[in-house]
Design goal:
By secondary structure, the chain is α/β, with parallel strands linked by helices. The chain folds into two domains: 161 residues, Rossmann fold (3-Layer(aba) Sandwich), CATH 3.40.50; 97 residues, ProC C-terminal domain-like fold (Orthogonal Bundle). Helices cover 56% and strands 13% of the residues. Strands 3-2-1-4-5-6-7-8 form an eight-stranded mixed β-sheet, with helices on both faces. The chain is elongated. The model has no long low-confidence stretch (mean pLDDT 93). One of its GO terms (biological process) is L-proline biosynthetic process. Keywords: Amino-acid biosynthesis, Cytoplasm, NADP, Oxidoreductase, Proline biosynthesis. Pathway: Amino-acid biosynthesis; L-proline biosynthesis; L-proline from L-glutamate 5-semialdehyde: step 1/1. It catalyses: L-proline + NAD(+) = (S)-1-pyrroline-5-carboxylate + NADH + 2 H(+); L-proline + NADP(+) = (S)-1-pyrroline-5-carboxylate + NADPH + 2 H(+).
Length: 270
């Protein structure tokens, strides 16, 4: 069965997903639809940029598609769910990328439908996202694979239980910000040692990119890769010791847990 994909929302994350789908050529541009709540100029820009089908009526979005990606902010999602309930048919699969809104909350506002929570992160904009896929019990294996395939078009996607989604937010959803801070700090240290600002960012960002690729592609434990760099009485072990004295790993662990706890609190607040 050929799916027709709808996007409720046309922001940065929606456009990253759309770009991945268009580039993959798996779905025809006529099979991808987008509706943007309130901001018609953005909708027109997306239609022109990607050549997909823009619709100005939210009801039409659901009439034309069977997989609908809800790409709006959490507060907006809670506002629109009761309204779109009237448009939902048995064949519709809802995919929410809103942080802090549980499958149960979505179901309470829309009724018992096929629902998936997907948590991509911002590197989707450069086709390097990491996305968690958490389905409810009525989503079929084939439908899960369809959604995994969609999110694989701009990075990697992995099916996990919704029970661990708070941890996913801490280790993946919010993590790019931690890495940006780390890159900035690396560069600041290099500038303090005389390197130009532009060169410092280039060296720092490439070092982080290369190190991440080593973990992803070698299959080696990060500690093993770290040991490969730390020579006896060398520069790297001196730096590692300095980081440990500053509670580097404990600080990062606390950051992950802080993000996870905040996501958990958001789920309880709404």
């Amino acid at each position: 069965m050929r799916h027709r994909i709808g996007f409720y929302g046309a922001g940065n994350m929606a456009q990253a997903i759309i770009a991945g789908l268009v580039a993959s050529n798996i779905y025809k541009k006529e099979e991808i639809f987008v509706y943007n709540h309130r901001y018609e100029p953005t909708l027109q820009e997306v239609e022109k940029k990607y050549g997909i089908q823009a619709v100005i009526d939210e009801k039409e979005l659901f009439e034309q598609t069977d997989v609908v990606i809800l790409a709006v902010k959490p507060a907006i999602l809670l506002q629109i769910l009761p309204r779109i309930k009237a448009y939902l048919q048995e064949e519709h699969l809802l995919v929410s990328i809103a942080a802090g809104i549980s499958i149960q909350q979505i179901a309470e506002l829309t009724g018992p439908h096929k629902i998936i929570r997907a948590m991509p992160n911002t590197p989707a904009m450069v086709n390097e996202a990491m996305t968690s896929i958490s389905p409810n019990e009525v989503v079929s294996d084939k439908q899960i694979q369809t959604v995994v395939d969609i999110f694989n078009k701009f990075g990697k996607a992995k099916v996990v239980s919704e029970e661990v989604i708070d941890a996913v937010v801490g280790v993946s959803g919010s993590a790019p910000a931690y890495v940006y801070l780390f890159i900035e700090a690396l560069a600041d240290g290099a500038v303090a040692e005389g390197l130009s600002r532009g060169d410092a960012y280039e060296f720092a960002s490439q070092a982080v990119l290369g190190a991440a690729k080593m973990v992803a592609e070698t299959g080696k434990h990060p500690a093993e890769l770290k040991d490969m760099v730390t020579s006896p009485k060398g520069t790297t072990i001196a730096a590692v010791q300095s980081l440990e004295e500053s509670n580097f790993r404990a600080s990062v662990m606390k950051a992950v847990q802080a993000a996870a706890n905040k996501n958990r609190e958001m789920s309880k607040e709404d």
